[in-house]
Amino acid sequence: MLEGTDVGMGGAATHRPQPPVDARDSVPGVQGGDPLRGGQSGPAKSSSRQAPSTAKPPQRAGLQGRGFEAIPDGQLLAHLLALTTEGKEADADCLADRLLHHFGSLADVVAAPAPRLRQIARLDERGLLSMRLVWEVAARLAWQETVHQPLLATTPALLAYCQMRLARERVDQVRALYLDVQHHLIADERHQVGTAGTVEVYPREILRRALELDAVGVIVARGQVRGSARLSANDRSSAKALEAGGQALGIRLTDYVVVARGGHCSYRGERQSR
Question: Within this chain, do residues 170 and 213 fall inside the same structural domain, yes or no?
């Protein structure tokens, strides 16, 4: 029986959506041991115990009093840095200002690669890990919004998720989302990783995986990290190959989309507009 498949009453097979498969489950530059403990195992500590600290995170009472949703991006980032780095509160404020000035937005800061964060703000291992964890939590929340509804490539929740996963990466990537007969998500997997400007799509591999998952539909999403979203000649060729091969196998290309930070374009939409 395929992974992610349940057999309900009467023997009918139903699918549980599998969490997104992504190889970036570690933070670049954070290696060895427990990153929250500095990554290295040290000598045995003394048995003497220190009294627990009674210090509160900076301005915690003020945050709770006015509501977290009212915190400006700069202060939100500063508080996160103060909780996860070894600097002082004033240092966290300076770091937050520097990061926002360089990257332009809170989303771009937490999505930034670890080497750039280390270069711009000299974040320590805890700070790097916190940025990656915040971004991953946000991406998984966006993914959760796509699970329990029929999907088209232009479903707003799906577009938001694909932009998080693809448009803010350093290089172009392709994800394949496999659907059941009711257009519900079976699995979301990264298909290929390319360079900043090019990535290959292999229709045969996508269709083979669709057969393994017992999928009847597939959405292919390509991230474009530079410039505006547009369908290239290779995109159109890949989409046509997926259509032709899928028709013979009973697998429908629901859509092929290109997503960038500023928007998206759709193979189906392009054809319908002609």
Answer: yes
Look up the domain containing 241 and give its range.
150-272
Residues 123, 186 share a domain = no
pLDDT tens by residue, 175-226 = 999 999 998 889 999 999 998 888 999 999 999 999 999 999 999 999 988 8
CA 28 to chain centre: 15
Q: Does residue 40 lie within any of the structural domains? A: no
* pLDDT tens column, 41-84: 444 444 444 444 344 444 554 566 667 788 889 988 988 888 87
Q: Model's pTM, two decimal places?
A: 0.63
Q: Is there a single domain that holds both residue 228 and residue 240?
A: yes
Instruction: Name the nearest CA neighbour of 27 among 114, 108, 112.
Output: 114
Helix %, strand %, coil % for the chain, to 5? 45, 15, 40
- Neighbour-count burial for 75-95, b at 16+ CB within 10 Å, e otherwise: bebbbbbbebbebeeeebbeb
* 224 Rama sector, left if φ>0, alpha if ψ -120 to 50, beta otherwise: beta
Whether 35 maps to a domain, the answer reads: no
- Over residues 4-14, mean pLDDT: 43
Q: How many CA atoms lie within 13 A of 205 on its CB side?
A: 12
Q: Are residues 117 and 86 in the same domain?
A: yes
| CA-angle at 128, arms to 122 and 130, nearest 5° | 135
